[in-house]
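Changelog note: in this version the structure field was regenerated for every chain. One regenerated record is shown below for reference.
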Amino acid sequence: MKMQHSYGLYLHAKGQGQNEGARSSALDLVMRNSRERFDSHAPCKLICAMLLEEITMPAFSQGLATTRTVLIPFGSVEEHGGHLPLGTDTIHAYELGKQVAGIHPIFVAPPVWYGLCRSTNLHPGTIGISGDTLKRLALDIVSGFYHQGCRNFVFLSGHAGGTHMAFLTDAGEQVLSRFPDSRVAVVSVLDVQSQMPGGIIETPGDSHAGEVETSLMLYLRNHLVDGTSPEEYPVFPKYILVRDKLRYWPGGVWGNPQKASSSKGATIMEKEALVLASLVKRLEELQVVDDSPL
């Protein structure tokens, strides 16, 4: 995750509303098919009834009577300083999606592990994809879910690079044009954190492998955290593109990892989940209009 740009809690919808019938009875059916799922790496216990890779064909069909919403986690394989795993963004987005599913019934798709990494593409371990590939992938995934009956789509990105988010937003706009009764939200974890109450994060501008992400990984994947890294705040030339980005950002940190703690990570996850669950509810309740040409 990087600060670069924030796209806000982006909501949009087009076409007809969803059918709310049979939600209560179907929820009972889904929960009877659910099981308590203990994540062996995280200290939290979750009930995850609708993780796509874990449910059966009948459970998916039952779930459609409860929700037509799917959260698709997007991440990256990207450097996160000298102390955090390359999959930090993806782990964060996926675990947050699962937390939201424990608050409000939604489908959670398997995560997309690769993203567009413009500022870190020279750092060891960063494996990026093009914006066009990212957009096509998002559109194809949504198309599959749409034809299976989903109508509300939440793109949750653990990687918050501005160019990466712009391509996801463009994909969301194309979803609206392609599927007249769809609703779409495009949001990064930085957007979610901006809506959290103050007093939790101590480091101003912390956004990449710093206080927040180190705290989250200490909570979610403690065994993957290798100590800490020095505090760092890179400065790139304003308006000027540079080839050797590693020269301006040698440590791969944007913030202060030394202020991190596992307990802070637990608090951040809890607050993020509440903010995102509220966004999902607003998306589902959004008054949609048919704005197609007359």
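Spot check on this record: The CA atoms of residues 64 and 148 lie 9 Å apart. The two ends are 42 Å apart (CA to CA).
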